[in-house]
Amino acid sequence: MPHATATSCWSRPRRCSPRAASTPPLEHIARRAGVSIGTLYNHFPTREALLGAVLPQRLAALDEIITVALADPDPWAGFTGFLEGLFTLHAEDHSLNDALAESFSPATDMSQVCHRGFGDVERIIERAKVSGRLRADFGPQDLVTLIWAMSQVIRKSMGTDPGAWRRPLSFFLDGLRAEAAHPLPGEHHRS
Questions:
Q1: Which of 9, 15, 90, 128 is close enough to 79 for a disulfide, judged by CB 3.0 to 4.6 Å?
Q2: 140-157 vs 75-92: helix axis angle to the nearest 10?
Q3: C-alpha 109, offset from chain centre
């Protein structure tokens, strides 16, 4: 089965209902591709293998968002623009949202999370921190948690209010400003 066929089959659910868009069964993907489930499993033995074939193409848009964020002369605008762009991708592509939500769970070990481009994302975070606009204690693991949380908001609201995620993102961003920072739970116990 050509990877293009798998890509088009995985993409189609984003135009379906929100329930159907949420990680379609492999049987559904095989049927949409016009192949048997056995053929699909011969080429992609797991959902992760199928995602591994499809996601790199889908993440090309994320590369552009990262490039724009790093080029922004205002590090805070680059950071917020990155997050807005990332979650716009999530909202526009429900299967991508679901795939990333599963990949970016709060318990995920950072060494296993989306190696592609994560060094640049760390640079986006560091630039915003050095500028004094992003709270100093925000780190990559906090971003992973934010991605997971926002993906849940996007998933739950996509059928009723697809733009609903923008409001909680604004609250999150206000809480990430350096001037709004307060000690986090447990930090006052550290010596």
A1: 128
A2: 40
A3: 15
Mean pLDDT in consecutive groups of 10 residues from the start of the chain, 191 residues: 46 37 68 84 81 72 92 98 94 72 47 60 96 95 91 89 94 94 71 41
Answer whether 61's CB lies under 8 Å from 96's CB: no
Distance, CA of 149 to chain centre:
10
Q: Which amino acid is at 36?
A: S
How far apart CA 44 and CA 26 sit, in angstroms, is 10
Q: What is the pTM of this model?
A: 0.70
Residue 122 near residue 67, CB atoms below 8 Å: no
What is the distance between the alpha carbons of residues 190 and 128, in angstroms, rounded to a whole number?
Answer: 25
